[in-house]
Amino acid sequence: MVLKRWLVGDPLKSTQAAHERLSKTIALAIFSSNAISSVAYATEEILLVLILAGTAAIVWSIPVSFAILFLIVVLTISYRQIIYEYPQGGGAYVVARNNLGEQPALIGAAALMIDYVLTVAVSTAAGIAALTSAIPSLFEHRVALGLSAIIFIIVMNLRGVRESGKFFAFPTYFGIGVLGLMVGIGMIQAFFGHSVSLSPDHQTAVEDLTLFLILRSVAAGCTAATGMEVISNGVKAFRQPESQNASTTMFHMSLILATLFMGISFLAYHYGVLPKIDETVISQLARLTFGTGALYYALQAGTMLLLILAANSAFAAFPQLASILARDGFMPRQMATFGDRLVFSNGIIILGVFACFLLFLFNGDTHSLIPLYAVGVFISFTLSQAGMVRRWLIKKGPHWRTKLIVNGVGAATTGGGVIIISSTKFIHGAWIVFLLILVLVLMFRSIRSHYKAVSEQVALTRDHRPPLPRRNIVLIPINGVNKAVIRAVDYARSRPGEIRAVMVDMDTESTARIQIQWAQWGCGVNLFVLPSPYRSVLGSLLDYIEQVLEKEPDIWVTVVIPEILPAHWWQGILHNQRALLLKTALLFKERVILTDVPFHLKR
Amino acid sequence: MVLKRWLVGDPLKSTQAAHERLSKTIALAIFSSNAISSVAYATEEILLVLILAGTAAIVWSIPVSFAILFLIVVLTISYRQIIYEYPQGGGAYVVARNNLGEQPALIGAAALMIDYVLTVAVSTAAGIAALTSAIPSLFEHRVALGLSAIIFIIVMNLRGVRESGKFFAFPTYFGIGVLGLMVGIGMIQAFFGHSVSLSPDHQTAVEDLTLFLILRSVAAGCTAATGMEVISNGVKAFRQPESQNASTTMFHMSLILATLFMGISFLAYHYGVLPKIDETVISQLARLTFGTGALYYALQAGTMLLLILAANSAFAAFPQLASILARDGFMPRQMATFGDRLVFSNGIIILGVFACFLLFLFNGDTHSLIPLYAVGVFISFTLSQAGMVRRWLIKKGPHWRTKLIVNGVGAATTGGGVIIISSTKFIHGAWIVFLLILVLVLMFRSIRSHYKAVSEQVALTRDHRPPLPRRNIVLIPINGVNKAVIRAVDYARSRPGEIRAVMVDMDTESTARIQIQWAQWGCGVNLFVLPSPYRSVLGSLLDYIEQVLEKEPDIWVTVVIPEILPAHWWQGILHNQRALLLKTALLFKERVILTDVPFHLKR
């Protein structure tokens, strides 16, 4: 407990919750790192596809990048409308549930959940790739480094929203700053014709430059747009006026994202940088722009921090979604409870564990994880936009036609994204995501139907009458006379009623001795000695309880078990094994109620 | 439960216990397989040491074997005296505790326990070696085969003594029969000068033929005597007259052991057989005697079965020892309880698990396990014999001087064995055994001192007065009104006294609704609404309970928790998480008693 307090801080009063709201500066750091950090790998993923058609195909990276830019612009405009319509937070689940119905909402929720896990895994993997590009000797330790980073983020998040916000603001801005500096200096150098003596190995084509290949590179580039929905999910976390602050932040975020992404794509093409296994495109660009000096290392550090902290944004959004689902009965109810620090501890831990598992499974490799990414994001984009289209059609209101067109274009664009991504990446891993969405939706539904069955079973009907009080027989199983037993008798006597001590006769001699002791210390409670044909204490007790229940069909039987509670948990193995067996055997008997009376040992 | 019944059979009445006694024929099969099966590896271990001094040193195997023969004779005579003195079972622990005191007894017990585990591991490894000698393609699967064999024996033993006795009698006698046949035919062939064209590779010496080396080979040969004590531990399992039947069985066992061991040692020398990595000496001998035909495979099968079943003898002895220790308070009390089938299930499972672990750790290799073996056995031999010497000195009785001399020679011989084994094998692994003995003795002592501390704390003193009845306040934490809650109220009302329903105000609206429902269905029980400054249901409840306890320092507080018991265990994750937290938090509060009132769901 002391360790937990030290790690996650003291609990907060709920009146403090309002102060946990984020300023725009902090919010940009928390919510935009996800979207912006994707510039660290998006260009590289585009090039990785195009290079399959040989070095000459690289020229296509520029039009592909413009396609992605168009996507970013469309998403920015259409998501601002969602932010204003859903100031309580408008994730794909909420918007779809509100406008499209339950089934699309659950698909959206499942897609988002998978996406959050992948955000953590991909961002961490890419962050560690930035590190190992600068320090190649760490390359072989990348999985261990990634896992450590995720665990670190989990602990930070369990400490609470604001503190982790402060903690993460500086590195995020530092990362944005150095990336911006690189793009700026690179552009100036390029403008003034600064020519780098880079002669890339001419790679021969292994595939033809088909439309399909170009679409595949668009699909790869779509990873740049991942994370753009995070702000719309988290509007509630902004200071008032929430929607306006969130919208402004979204605009800033998109501007930074678009500038950095286009800049990096242009520079990579200009300098003829090609992807390498052990060094990222960004790292190569930085060496060309800054030389391998202090600025280069600052840029690698900044990129790494930005990516590692991008993983953090999912930790703000995932528990929110899980708690909304839990409140609607689609997730276990405890996901809806606040943790100690007003954050949803359960969700944080689950997200962290799954992300660690994924990172471990894919050996910490960004490129292997990418095909799974983006599918879920674009499904949720599409559902949100489609939901908004339906909303305008029904709700109408001022300027609804314009709004309809904006979200309609958004839906068409992102829907196109889903088709492109899933058709080009299906065999590379996107099928896993579709399978997982199916599994999650089935899980949501079965959890809800269980809770529904439960509430039907426990529901009180209008004509339900308060029951008449029933009689209660208290049984105290004993196997000796000592303070623990007397304490149980003492407790049983605290309320009037029939009390019986029962013991099983395993050995005539000790039974006689116990009977004599009972006469002295038993407080007048009757002692029943049970025969034991099977040499089984448990069997005889169960038989006796069964008899009592049969004889009097309308009573409660309370079994008061004197239990020794050791001073140290590991001493538990030396005690109460028999009590445990008895409790397990009685758990499913109607009308039998178990009560432990612990006797606390001091040593 | 059905699976368990099918695997281990129906429970037996304790009046059936007498019928579980063993006939001499069955007892020989159960108790002697351990000792006799050691001929399968003892000669090989002697040769493995001598070959270090080159092929010429092999001639020493004959005098070394005679030394072992002397040991067998001495042990047989001196153990017969123990069998008559301790008809209740005279293991090293019992004899040492009776005559030498607690410390030597615990050392003996620890040595025996380690020995039993090693018996299972070594015998199984050697048994699998017999199998893989005949079918070399199985060599790489030896660990998996060994583990399967141990698990098979565990299940058989959980079925009970007599059934496993019957089950094991035939293969034991079959193994003894084919080994005897091989020795007999081999001897006849050798006598009539049948010369095998075996030209062993002349191995060069890597060590000098020193006295130390010869003593090392004696130590290796001592493994032939392992298991000779088993009968003396299990006298109780024989039919009446127990001692006489046990003594006769011991004599038969020693005769078979001595004949087979000397025969194999002689034949191995005569034919010039040397140890190989992938084929046992016995297998080589069998090929030379029988040719590689049906008889050869019968012998390998017989040896394997004998060895695998030798492991079984430890499963009869280990739980007996554990239960004796448990009754004296040196082991957890549940080790003393009979299992379903009148056998000591706990001991069987523990022994099996440790043996599996050891087999796995040493990669199923007999030779690696051997240095750990024999040390424990000989320590327990020595303690038994020394205990008997002390006994005759004090007790005297008829012919006590002769008896003293017999056990004295036994003690000196086995004590010599301990010195030889531990000095020659110390660095090869015997140190592990000494360390484990130390650890076990410390464990025994700390368990006993814990039980002693407990019994002091719970003991009733002569002047202890029965306590006066105290008042009881019953609290029912609720978060809604449903059948489960009403059931808890119903139970609480079954005995008169003060009852308070308590709920934490997390949401004004639902609190008001619940208060109205309570007025209708709450059976007149007062509902207390607690404030929740920290948004924590648990924290508010704990605060309130603390207040009640403080206000009235002489009452019991019973917390009645309405708990939903799902129809399927895996639904448990969807329920009662809050109840679990509450229970954990209240476990260590004095005067607070927890009572679950389960509401059984049907679906």
Mind explaining what this structure looks like?
- 2 copies of one chain form a homodimer.
- Chain A is an alpha/beta fold and 603 residues long.
- Chain A has 22 helices and 5 strands.
- A 5-stranded parallel sheet of chain A has the order 3-2-1-4-5, sandwiched between helices.
- In chain A, α20 (508-521) links the parallel β2 and β3.
- In chain A, α11 (242-271) packs across α12 (281-290).
- The first copy, chain A, is elongated and about 105 Å long.
- At the A-B interface, α18, α19, β4 and β5 of A face α18, α19, β4 and β5 of B.
Quick summary:
Two copies of one chain form a homodimer. With 603 residues, chain A is of the alpha/beta class. Helices cover 63% and strands 6% of the residues of chain A.
Taking Cα atoms only, what radius of gyration of chain A do you get, to the nearest Å? 32 Å
End-to-end separation of chain A: 21 Å
Oligomer: homodimer
Measured as a percent range, the helix fraction of chain A is 55-70%
**Order of adjacent strands in the largest pleated sheet of chain A:** 3-2-1-4-5
Share of residues in strands of chain A: 5-15%
Number of distinct beta strands of chain A: 5
Largest interface: A-B, 78 and 77 residues
Structural class computed from helices and strand pairing of chain A: alpha/beta
Tally of separate helices of chain A: 22
Structural features:
homodimer, 603 residues, alpha/beta, five-stranded parallel sheet, 5 strands
Topology:
Two copies of one chain form a homodimer.
Chain A: H1 2-8, H2 24-37, H3 39-50, H4 61-85, H5 92-99, H6 102-134, H7 142-158, H8 161-191, H9 211-221, H10 230-233, H11 242-271, H12 281-290, H13 294-327, H14 345-361, H15 366-369, H16 375-395, H17 400-425, H18 430-458, E1 471-477, H19 483-492, E2 498-504, H20 508-521, E3 526-530, H21 537-551, E4 555-565, H22 577-586, E5 592-600
Parallel strand pairs in A: 1-2, 1-4, 2-3, 4-5
